[in-house]
Amino acid sequence: MKPADLVPAAATPRIPVCDLAGTQLGSFPVRRIYCVGRNFADHAREMGAVAPASKAERGSPVFFMKPADAIVTDGVVPYPPGTRNLHHEVELVVALGADAPAGVLPLADAQALVFGYGVGLDLTRRDLQAAAKAKGLPWDIGKGFDHSAPISSLLPAAAFGPVAAQSITLDINGQRRQASALDQLIWDVPDILHELSQLFALRAGDLVFMGTPAGVAALQPGDHFDARIGTALQLQGHIAPAAV
């Protein structure tokens, strides 16, 4: 047999997993990462978009995706290649623990799919995203890169409590950058799961990054981040030098 005819053995892919807080269940295997854009009115405005004045005017949510292996669970984020303008976006993360039934998920049934919650960062190569937007092109390279989804341990929903009662914050090097009450989400968790079910088959292991409030800004190597939702969830880490 000629060398060109040899097919290399496929490596077994590693399944990305999140840590679990307050439970003996082990780890949470990640299937997909869905993300919601422009889900806080103040962030929509800071990005130059028109924010809806009421729920009746909100239209449809903006969705994009990250690869499952973009998660970072140890807090160490190498500065990514190809950018000079890496931005932070702190977000509530929803973890699904059950498959959605076939068809469109009713709003009344959506919450039952939720296993738990985390706090995460939707890291964004803002310069690459802006360049793609300006040309009317997809902006996957601005969002779906390696190490672009740092995430905390996941807390079961029963221990987390009502989402709308929580607040989310992000400090960089000890200075507050982002802060909001989660009752300011334009589309809440059941809304988003209902909307996603019209486009995708939702399954156990899916994560949903729910969007960020105003205050997004640049990160540099050496910066330390501290993201929190109330007293229940915390994500700490730093931006490491670019990998070589």
CATH class: Alpha Beta
| CATH level-3 fold name | Fumarylacetoacetate hydrolase, domain 2
- In CATH, the architecture is Alpha-Beta Complex
- Terminal CA distance reads 38 Å
The biggest beta sheet, please? 6 strands, mixed
Number of helices: 6
Q: Biggest sheet, strands in spatial order?
A: 4-3-15-8-9-12
Order of helices and strands: EEEHEEEEEHEEHHEEHEEHEEE
Total domain count: 1
Which structural class do the helices and strands define?
A: alpha+beta
Please state the overall shape, judged from the principal axes of the Cα atoms: globular
Helix content: 10-25%
List keywords for this structure.
244 residues, alpha+beta, Fumarylacetoacetate hydrolase, domain 2, 6-stranded mixed beta sheet, 5-stranded mixed beta sheet, 17 strands
Write up this protein:
With 244 residues, the chain is α+β, with helices and mostly antiparallel strands. It has one domain (18-240): Fumarylacetoacetate hydrolase, domain 2 (Alpha-Beta Complex). It is 15% helix and 30% strand. The strands form five sheets. The chain has a six-stranded mixed beta sheet with strand order 4-3-15-8-9-12. A five-stranded mixed beta sheet has the order 6-17-16-13-14, with no helix packed on it.
